[in-house]
Amino acid sequence: MCIVKGVILRKAQVKDKKGIRTLLKSSKLQTWYLDDNLDNFVVAYQREFVGCGCLCLHDGVFELRGLCVRSSFRGKGFGSKLFKFLMKKAVGKKVSQVFVRLENKKLVSFYEQFGFKTIAKSQCPIKTKMPGINVLPMKLFLKNKQ
Fold first, then answer.
1. What angle do CA 90, 95, 99 make, to 5 degrees?
2. Domains of the chain
3. Fewer Cβ neighbours under 10 Å: the N or C end of the chain?
């Protein structure tokens, strides 16, 4: 658990599942991976549920999924706090690269500020299993401390 200026960031628990699912759905994000990855989710609270994010492992490749903040809390740094917390976990796991597949192209600049680069779909090792979903893949190289 981490407390950042009144925000509590912690590993998701079973009691958080409904809030995570509701938030993802309301943000038009997929929820199919939630049940199998609840242990990989992080949630943010500030007196109430604020947001969530997940660092999933797919066939040896790490992907950032479901990074989402409730609309009334957006633009206040919660997404950045969640992102940084998840990347700290990734570095602790000796992860060298993280992928994100964006369904909402408006989020490109959010991820670019942290060093993500847009890549060709053919360069993304994670393939979209949902027909009709058009994603923009991005990749981030992490610097792990030896």
1. 85
2. 2-141 (3.40.630.30)
3. C
